[in-house]
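User: I'm new to structure prediction. If I give you an amino acid sequence, what do you actually give back? Let's try with this one:
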Amino acid sequence: MVTQTTHKNTKEIAKEYLDSVYDTVCSRNPDETEFHQVVKEIFDSLVTVIAQNPEYMEHGILDRIVEPERLITFRVPWVDDEGQVHVNRGYRVQFNSAIGPYKGGLRFHPSVNPSVVKFLGFEQIFKNSLTGQPIGGGKGGADFDPKGKSDAEIMRFSQSFMHELGQYIGPNVDIPAGDIGVGAREIGYMFGQYKKMHGRFEAGTITGKGLNYGGSLVRKEATGFGIIYFVEEMLKQQGLKFQDQTIAVSGSGNVSIYAMEKAQELGAKVVTCSDSDGYIYDEKGIDVETVKRLKEVERTRIEDYTAEHPHAKYFDSPTDVWSVPCTVALPCATQQEIDEETANLLVENGVIAVGEGANMPTTLEAINLFKKNNVHFAPAKAANAGGVAVSSLEMAQNNMGFSWSFEEVDGRLREIMKDIYDNSSEAAETYGYAGNLVIGANIAGFLKVADAMMAQGVV
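Assistant: Good question. You get back a string of structure tokens that encode the predicted 3D arrangement of the chain. For your 459 residues, that looks like this:
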């Protein structure tokens, strides 16, 4: 096993190289704090790897991997129900195609900007690598807020967005999927527009489709189920299990809902979930079927849960969801929702494990605090890879022209998540960071991509 003290001089050289590349990232991409943070987090994990593999420095792997292969920005004009014209900005970052065509979701949210898209796309490179599937990293979206919009407005916006994006994607080029603000409805509208633009039915162009036109079973549940499968493996290694754990969850979208459902199937009690207005606390355990109906069918606010479950309590501060005592915390809402102060409160209240459902929901300071207090931590790029894993399985089914059963897809998902845990854990131990899944996931994801880039030369 390689130890952290091996080749000290080589490690100093590696650290200087990584610092130099990071400084270049910051100077070339000023004010892009989200992108800076994710690059630093991954680079901090790679010092020993670069020291032991100096050929990565010699071939400028890090210099190349931080620069997107392509960043596309476009305007998205659309007309609301009153006839008023609006213009939003759309983005797609095609970050790295070393191991396969670009793959990553589309996010419709006011916070979307180049920094957010690049942070998500950079993270996606390594997440996709971890799945073991032949898919590269990409991400996209628009600064459009779907909240409060009619179905007709959502349709017009989605069609206008795809009218521009559709020129740059395809089954062997770039395969988008859904993310925050983009579900089956939006995917359907975009797929229809792409089909109209190109005059042919290419099921493998986009994933997250409806089952009656090329979608896959378990796709809706995949990210939430995958988080639980990963955390289950993490707990199992400590002689623990989900049964009788108290779970706090943030968010109430697909990721949150199906993480809650699977955790309850395994015997846990889920006591919270939230939306952008506030959170609910149900000491008897969240009724997931009620949340599903409110958020997936009626598209209303989580506050309405208390009308049907009057014993539950509603609080109008969504960030305070982490004040509720729990043994397992699953942040599934958005980035940066757990800071150092919040992490300290979770530790004081007895948390033993944290599994990231959202992308980068925990600050670096909070992660370090969890490590110091021996809280088992499942990083997003590993723990929430279930969505893209099943997206890749959807692509495989599209290519073969048939569909697998729910049980078969779910079984493959569980196997993939176990492999991600095992590979991350093994990489951490090999490079002298046993038990650190943040570093292990970064290393395991990086090595596959770096070796593929080496094999393909400087392109």
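You can read the tokens as a compact description of the fold. Here is one thing that stands out. The chain has a mean pLDDT of 95.
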